[in-house]
Amino acid sequence: MSLIPGLGLAKGMALTLRRFFEPKVTIMYPEERIDVPPKFRGRLQLLYDEWGTLKCETCFQCAQACPIECIDMGGIDTRGRYHVHWGAAETYGERREESALRRSGRPVPDPAFRPFQPVDLGELDRILEDHDHDPADMLQILEETQAAYGYLPVAALKRISHETGAWYAMIYGTASYYAHLRFEPAASTEQAQEVADHRPLEATYLAALDAALGGSDRPGTPARA
Amino acid sequence: MDRAFKARLEGRFGDQLTGPIRQRHDESEMRIAAGDVTQVLAALHDEPAFRFEFLADLAGVDTGEVMQVVYHLWSDSTSDWLRVIADGLSREDPRVPSVTFLWKGAEWMEREAYDMFGITFEGNRDLRRIYMPPDYTSFPLRKDFYLADDAARSPGGGVRPMERTHAPHGAPATANVRRSGG
Amino acid sequence: MTVISRGWDRLTLPGKVLFLLIPLLIVATVGLVAVIVLLGQPILDTLAANLPIVRFVLAVTIVLLMTIPTAFLIIYMEMKIIALMNLRIGPDRVGPFGSLLSVVHGLKVLMKEDFTPTGVDPIVFTWAPVVVYLASVMALLVVPFSNGIVGQAFNLGLLYFFAISGLSVVGLLMAGWSSYNKYSLLGGLRSAAQVVSYEIPLTLSVVGLILLAGTMNIDTIVRNQAGWFTDWYVFQQPLGVLIFFIAATAEANRTPFDLTEADSEIVAGFATEYSGMRFGFFFFAEYVNVFIISALLVTLFFGGWNAPFPWPWPVELSLDPGSMGIGLLLLIGLGPVVLTLLFATPFWLASSRIKAWQALIIGFVLANLFIVTLVGAWAYVGLDWVAGILWFMFKTYGFVFTFVWMRGTLPRVRIDQLMDFAWKWLLPASLLNLFITAAALVVVKGLR
Amino acid sequence: MTTTTDRSGAGRPSTDDPRVMLDEELGVFEPIPPYPPRTEREAEFYTLRDGEMLLNMGPQHPSTHGVLRVVLKIDGEKVVDLDPVLGYLHRGVEKLCENADYHQAICYLDPLEYVSSLFCEWPGVMAFEKLLDVQVPRRAEYIRVLSAELNRVASHALFLGWMALDLGGLTPILWSFIERDEIVDMLASLTGQRMLFNYFRIGGVNGDLNHDFMSRLGDWMSHATEQIEAGNTLLNENEIFVRRMRGLGTIDSTTALRMAFSGPNLRATGVPFDVRRAHPYSIYPELDFDIPTRSEGDCFARYLLRMDEIKQSLRIIDQCLHQMPDGPIIAKLPRLLRPRPGRAYAGIEGPRGQYAAYVMSDGTDQPFRMRIHDPSFIHLQAVGLMMPGHLIADTMAVMASLDPIMGGVDK
To answer: For residue D193, what are the contacts with CB-CB under 8 A and spacing of at least 6?
Structure first.
């Protein structure tokens, strides 16, 4: 404090008056934006590949790895409803699995037109009983389920999640990691037929290729009928 | 590591130690029984050879078998942090004397340990819950307390595998799974 | 029925409005004319017989209406000036330089729910803002804005002012007590303690001035200060001005004495439980109070509506419109057109990019500005009340700026320091001021 | 003499519990609190004498620095006693850390101190490194010190503003935010985030110094603390400010040690305890800086001490820039960390005092026990010691001068 009372106040007043005329620092937000730093990690977005296809495989690994569980998986299901991955069961029923499967880009049965076949879960319950509902035995449970049903029905996965207490994402992640586990019947002749219907016969385009390349006598090109 | 300090501690508190004095990096660790806390900490605080006037931290620990209270002290008489572990508190009724007579600032840290572990600090005149609501009944940082699921009534309702690493010893694997609707 | 309804449906919206409006207007006009013809004379007679009452009612209405734009302006000043001092930009979206933001705030406050919490005393709770606001408006009634422009001039104007401005504390106390909230109660009691304490130095600081002026008539006090600015009372009462300034700041609950609504301590003080327009009344009253104390400071010590110097070139403008005859009509009819063209031509010639209609708009705006400037200058020179209002407002808003500036700079004092300051410093100082003034008067009279 | 009154008192039916207030007009019970006293202290506090009333400040109060609730027992304007009630921001970070692996645990530490995040990461990371016996590369240590000291300046800058704001000054908070914003932008270009940096990694840091950061730092160093100085001009000589802060919330050095104070609040009482010197860590032994102390122990001393610390931080930043070695910025470590069973304690000097982490490992990839020590928690309990006898308005000033962050207090 100075000897003259009020000098400190006057100094402060002088400073604010000087600041009154100084240039301002406000960034006029909607018109003017500062760039986020290159290392910015707050942008959550899904990436698309060069053909415009979503690169996300819906593997749920990100949701599972997120340490503070801020990532939720969600999407539009075949009936146009939006679902998040984790929430009360009553609100969205069984749709999240279908949605996840559909978004994975694999050939999956389209429940909009062809509902899931009802699966008898008695077999699964026996398997779970054998393993004492222990999520530590997840791989064995999944393998035995596949052995029992031929594939891993969504209803079964849900049942496993329910009974073992393991997170659905975890089970799905495990199952999708191993090549020998599948989510659709392996011997689905219908599907195979559908795929075949949409593909030109091999002979057709091989012949065209040969013609384009000028004959089939090039070494290393097996001649096919 | 201050080897001379270890010798000093052993010389002074030899009969009160319940375990060997361990030293690692810049920490010295001594274990005492819960009943000796008052004497040992008062001696560490007051005696001119030690002068541990700065209470760096006070923490409760649940090892799954016993409870511990861990004090971290600092003094200019040594280059180490001194860790005093009051060992061997029973999990059913853990009790340890309060150190608020030395450090009044330990009051809230003891309240926190009480809130989180249920450790009773005898002599603390304000031992009530500090973070949890007053009508809360369990002790969250104990090892037999599992994090409730985000959506306890969801199909996956129960405990996530991620949270099951530290199952209590000897507990059956499914003992802690909270069933939906339960 | 169907014909009518189909015809009605076919009308557009403006059509419907006009359809209803036109008959209404016709009826109203006819009715009005009838009323004027039949009852005009008696009404006029009544009004003429009670001219002071009519004048008073008009004055009250105008003062009441004037508080609203004043409050808006000061709120905007506060937002903008503090923002600029903070190196921010402040309001800049609504209106030019954001100047309409305070109006929008006012509308927002009007539209908000007028919430009455459980447990309040509803009558007192509802009337508290009214009392506070009316106290402000009533105090404004005796402030002379210019020569002859005063709500109500009377001999004890100054006394009236202090009596009324002390009334607002009743409203604050009512609000604090009735709100059923401890913060409100604290705020109300704080304001009671503060206003009552500062009332004393505030009043005492003017007593010296009253001795000098020899009257409590505010108008006379202002007239005494006419001439050069050295005739202002500020140079005869420097200590009095300082005390008056500080005490008035406290009286108006402004920083650094804004303890009654110290947001970091007691949330919003007496106004904690108020919302909607009731809160708006408190809010407005606060800013009207700022205007009032600035106005009074100017009136009592800074010459009021007197210019700081006498106009060096006295002009006698004698403009008798009747003497111009047909020239007046020509001036009114052709003047704007000619001026517009005159101002538009250079722009039109200067750049081929400016189209004729753009040039005309520019010319029109400039011509209007020119006319307004001309008329304003004429009014300033020729009508002394216009000059008075200009000087008065200039000085008053200068002090308003100072109050806002202080708010942007200073932290808040504590309640015990506030009381200490009032009783231990301001009160003795004001007594000293009074003593010195009285002694000086005696000496001067004795010498004479 | 105990009464049941709060507002009018006379003629109220008394209940058995003197702390229960009954409003017969409303028919509403207003129990404070609705359960019998559990401790000696609580019984003492909630017993009202004549003329006293309870004022519940917070958790939604403008100036309790977050969601803190303080129950004030007041006699008129005078505070008789006060009881801080915590837990409104309690997130159970310790438990969460025990359920995450060592890498994941770091990002739980960030939001504890949202004003100076790096100081909350640092002890955790240091404790993990001690458990794993990791040697941190020297460049990483320098970068850590550099960024942490920047963060300290930012934190103290904000302290200045808050302090003034709690005393009713509107301007310094915005000026100090300008200063803080420059630093935060700088740290954002280094770490990628503006608030929760999550920059320190076990064994080093995440990302090397980059051009953007260095150019911003250079710019800033050329006019460093300009806004803080301006704020000081506004406050240091301001009679109102000084008269309010001098002699307020005084605490002597013995009491401060007994209250387990640390950091600026302890040094303001004259104890030259600074973990950077008292128990050196990182590269602080190699750096040249002073430990400012003051002997008054009041709010004004705490305020001035922090302003002195800013200058020392600038010295450290300058030295770091000049001595910055080359080399790796992070030690090579496996992705999955399984330290040997053991215990580690790491304490550092943050802007508010000693931040510490105490970690126990049981050999798995997750900490067995993670204890976080936050100085705000310790300092806040001293408000109850400092306040009695002062006024309501001083509660804010004292609390602001101790500079608690509720994120750290509530963990």
So the answer is: A40, A41, A42
What is the extent of the structural domain holding B66? 3-122
Domain definitions of chain A by residue range: 61-187
Exposed/middle/buried for A70, CB within 10 Å: 0-12, 13-18, 19+?
exposed
Q: In chain B, whose CA is at the least distance from the CA of A138?
A: B161
**DSSP code at position A48:** B
Residues B130, D41: C-beta atoms closer than 8 Å: no
Domain CATH number, residue B72? 3.30.460.80
* B32/B95 same-domain check: yes
Instruction: Kindly report the length of chain A.
Output: 225
Q: How far apart are CA D66 and CA D89, in angstroms?
A: 8
B52 and B99 in a single domain? The answer is: yes
Q: Cβ D237–A6 below 8 Å, yes or no?
A: no
3-state secondary structure B97-161: ECCCCCCCCHHHHHHHHHHHHCCEEECCCCCCCCCCCCCCCCCCCCCCCCCCCCCCCCCCCCCCH
**Rounded Cα–Cα distance for residues D376 and B31 (Å):** 29
Q: What is the pTM of this model?
A: 0.75
| C89–A28 C-beta distance less than 8 A | yes
Question: Do residues B99 and B22 share a domain?
Answer: yes
pLDDT tens readout for residues D55-84: 888 787 777 777 888 888 888 888 888 888
- Higher-pLDDT residue of C13, C327: C13
Q: Over the stretch D19-56, which tens digit does the pLDDT of each residue have?
A: 444 444 444 444 455 566 777 788 788 877 777 888 88
Asked if B161's CB is within 8 angstroms of A135's CB, the reply is yes
- Pairwise CA distance, residues D254 & D259, whole Å: 9
Kindly state whether residues B40 and B93 are assigned to the same domain. yes
Residues of B in contact with D369 (CB under 8 A): 59, 61-62
Contacts of C259 in chain D (CB under 8 A): 393
Residue from D193, D201, D223 to probe the interface with A (highest A Cβ count within 10 Å) = D193
Res D221: pLDDT: 86
| Kind of pairing between the strands at A82-84 and B22-24 | unpaired
Based on DSSP, count helices (H) and strands (E) in chain C, helices before strands. 17, 2
Q: How many pairs of residues across A and C have Cβ atoms under 8 Å apart? A: 33
C182 — alpha (psi -120 to 50), left (phi > 0) or beta?
alpha
Contact C414 D62 (CB under 8 A): no
Tokens of D367: 């900490």
Q: What would the pLDDT profile of D355-399 be if each residue is shown by its tens digit? A: 999 999 888 888 888 899 999 998 988 888 888 888 888 888 888
Distant-in-sequence, close-in-space partners of B41: CB < 8 Å, separation ≥ 6: B52, B71, B73, B84, B99, B102
Residue in A118, A138, A113 with CA at minimum distance from that of residue A128: A138
Q: Which residue has the higher pLDDT, A94 or B48?
A: B48
Q: What is the separation of C-alpha B66 from the centre of its chain, rounded to a whole number of angstroms?
A: 10
Q: Which residues contact B63 (CB under 8 A, 6 or more apart)?
A: B143, D368
Q: In CATH, which superfamily holds the domain spanning D93-406?
A: Cytochrome-c3 Hydrogenase, chain B (1.10.645.10)
Write out chain A residues lying below 8 Å of B161, CB-based.
Answer: 135-136, 165-167, 170
Chain D positions in Cβ-Cβ contact with residue C180 (cut-off 8 Å): 7
Distance separating alpha carbons of residues A152 and A134, to the nearest angstrom: 18
DSSP string, C314-358: -------GGGGTHHHHHHHHHHHHHHHHHHHHHHHHH-TTS-HHH
In this predicted structure, what is the pLDDT of residue A196?
Answer: 59
Please state, in angstroms and rounded to a whole number, the distance separating the CA atoms of residues C77 and C99.
9
For residues C268-277, average pLDDT = 84
Quick one: tokens of A155?
Answer: 């209803």
**Is the CB of residue C245 less than 8 Å from the CB of residue C297?**
yes
Which class is domain A61-187? mainly alpha
